[in-house]
Give the backbone structure.
Amino acid sequence: MSDNTMRRRGPRQKDVTPKDLIDFKATRLELQWNVPAAHLNDEFFGHHFRTIASSLRHVVEKLFEKGSRDFDDSPWKGKNAYLEKLIDQIARPDPLDAAPWDDLLKCPMKRTAVLRGAILKIIADTVLNDYLVGAEEDETKILREQDENLITDDDFRRTKMRQETVNMFLSHHQGVPPNFWPYVDKHTMKILVVILPIWNWVRRTWPAEKEIPDIKMAYELLHHSVAYACWFAVNVRRSPSVLTLDWPTPGERYTPAQVEVYPAVHSASKVANTENDFRAVLEASVTNRPAQATQRTARVMVAVVPKVDMFSVVDGQHGYNIFRLLDARVVSYHGLRDDAADATVFETIQ
């Protein structure tokens, strides 16, 4: 048996579980509280949202790097309904891949994109949607009731009222929500539990003797990113502006306004699909069957980062300003130009 075979078949990294974190406390990220209100402008929020996205990219690249062993099975072997539903919201594979759903996580670039998008989607749906991260229960109740009572008012009026109430609450706590760190702990653990099956699947590609990030390091890396996102969310609530996130829909046509983060993925898809289309035309000509050239276009494979806008009222005037904090980041595949036809092909791999 060759050394390479021994290396692939030797002892692998053991799976980790949340129980391995018993009594572990992550170091707390240093954050700047009580940012002057005048500094809470579009540039401030744009800079810090980009930092959130960048920090998550670092976490994913650090944790989900493949080792020297081959993947031992499908990443979807263990049923995880929440994880599957989450990934469905931000990704769909290229139907032409040999094992489309497996390849979505086996390909290094696609895997990085999917995990970046999945973690940020959790943060967007929870942290960035909360009335006030880390608030006391009665404070959250007041904010919720206030929002419900103003449901018929426009977004700016509701946001302005929420801003005033949030700033009043924060003034009672020296600017720091009283349950901020327990909130960060809770949501970090939630994210870790969601991604743990895929992380363990990747960890098994590393030999047992190799030093790689353990679960404590993983938790701490995530903890810092989540803490930063929570701090960002608190400052959004201190502002009268309205933050909106618009996620690209997997399968929709790629637009020039979207930023392609891994162009090599689309290039490979374009080559493979073009060759496949050419073979189909060639086979049709041999059998004298009519065939037309297939029309294709780039479509979203993975929504990595949403389009992020800030809406603010124009002082003393009617209307509002829109400031683009970040263009959407995506990975694309070379799909069919006809929307219905592309959707039909995708259904064949479900």
Q: What stands out?
A: Residues 219 and 227 are 12 Å apart (CA to CA). The two ends are 39 Å apart (CA to CA). Residues 1-7 have pLDDT under 50 and may be disordered. The chain has one domain: 3-20+38-134+179-347.
